[in-house]
């Protein structure tokens, strides 16, 4: 099984090492000092006190690798449209693309059914670059729950977690999803192929859409936001607005709002990934976590007054820090807003932080 990990940072590097140990033919796309270190010394994974080094084919030119069975996209969501063209040499007729990214994926309304079937989302896929350049039919959804960190060039530290639920947009348990799930299992990872991948996407997003921007604005950690009476009210209001949207879209929320907030707070004094990006001067993942929820609210005619205010504030905060630019809008948005058939074309490194811990029913933001 040929697997390319596009974005071999914290999560991508972790997956690359473990899948290679399980027998997959793994290649990595990376850049800079991290790539140079992997080429020189291999990719080191520190997990459970043990060090594992994998010597994998790694490059900054996907054209060197050729078509793959699976491409795992492990970039920050806002980075993906910019690599669609570079990704093309990896895409053969049967290549599946696993979207191991935060937030709502570009393929969300593919095989969704109902009045929004085939709808594209400008906030996360401006100009439809992923939809047309990768194709929704290739996509397999993936929710990333582990926490890992790049602690030095070519060195990944695993913090906790091994869950990567997988799911087809159609809800079918297909042979390609089953084969990938079995490969993850051989690597010691929990990646069941499930029928309700959108419910899992929303469960994680439900916390991310409020805790991430509130933390970037206040610099508060999860416990402070969740258990502070005023910030908890803001988070609750945003979550209730999002739930109303999800309800219109047929999403099933298997925990209630209070339990979801408490679960985040119990993680403790951890910074969200958005706050860490702000502090480290890295582009902030705003539209995939918050902007797209506003867009979906307008689509299904659910007002989002609290979310709108928080989104405006965090966008300005990030813009003033030079860490955010609004997504480019297509010139003919009205045409792209219509329902259409799926095209026949052939989908950052991200450090998932302790602020995104999950347990049986607790999936903090």
Give the gist of this structure.
The protein is an alpha/beta fold and about 375 residues long.
Instruction: Give the CATH topology of the largest domain.
Output: Rossmann fold
Read across the widest sheet, the strand sequence of neighbours is 5-2-1-6-7-8-11
For the biggest sheet, the summary is: 7 strands, mixed
| Poorly predicted ranges | 331-365
Q: What is the annotated CATH architecture of the largest domain?
A: 3-Layer(aba) Sandwich
Radius of gyration: 19 Å
- The arrangement of helices and strands along the chain is EHEHEEEEHEHEEEEHHHHHHHHH
CATH superfamily of the largest domain: NAD(P)-binding Rossmann-like Domain
How many domains? The number is 2
Structure explained in plain terms:
This protein has 365 residues and is α/β, with parallel strands linked by helices. The chain has 2 domains: 2-197, Rossmann fold (3-Layer(aba) Sandwich); 198-269 and 279-342, N-(1-d-carboxylethyl)-l-norvaline Dehydrogenase, domain 2. It contains 13 helices and 11 strands. Strands 5-2-1-6-7-8-11 form a 7-stranded mixed sheet. A 4-stranded mixed sheet has the order 4-3-10-9. Helix 6 crosses helix 10 (273-280) and helix 8 (229-248) crosses helix 11 (287-300). The longest helix has 22 residues, at 197-218. The chain is globular and about 50 Å long.
